[in-house]
Amino acid sequence: MTSKDQGDERETRSRTPNFLETKEIKRLIGILSAAGGLELELEDQGMRLRIRMPEPQSRTEFVGIPSMAPGAFPGYPPATGAAPAAAAEASGEDGLPAGSVYVNSPMVGTFYRASSPDAEPFVGVGDRVEVDATVCILEAMKVMNEIKAEQAGEIVRILVENGEPVEFGQPLFILKVS
Hints:
By secondary structure, this protein is α+β, with helices and mostly antiparallel strands. The protein folds into 2 domains: 3-52, no CATH class; 85-177, CATH 2.40.50.100. The protein contains 3 helices and 10 strands. A 4-stranded antiparallel sheet has the order 3-10-8-5. A hairpin with a 2-residue loop joins strand 1 and strand 2.
């Protein structure tokens, strides 16, 4: 190698951006990784370096949740669903009128008696309902869910106020089964 070639090589090295050295690239990768970054691009003196990290693998983890014991909601009777008429007859000891059942909330949400604030309620005390008649709406995650009667009967009592949040299994109505 001639002295002119050695001088050209030194000049090229001095013009090469610092970020293109192996040691510096490793340092940049470490910083990018620690910061949780996915991509870094540097450009200097017409030279460009792009570091692209792989996408992190998304992981879904399932955690078991113990089931709630009957009567776990203080102040609310155990969720029994709309029981058949024979079971309703036997439920007199839990405060229900003879022949009545609870209409329980099938989900967590906000209870609404009507489809809109100025609309008539779906049902009122003393109203007769048929199977699959809408008795209320529960809003859950901005979705309005119509709750339907599972049995025909008469609404004896409305247990929840309009706009009130409700829990899964919480009684909403008392229905006298016909």
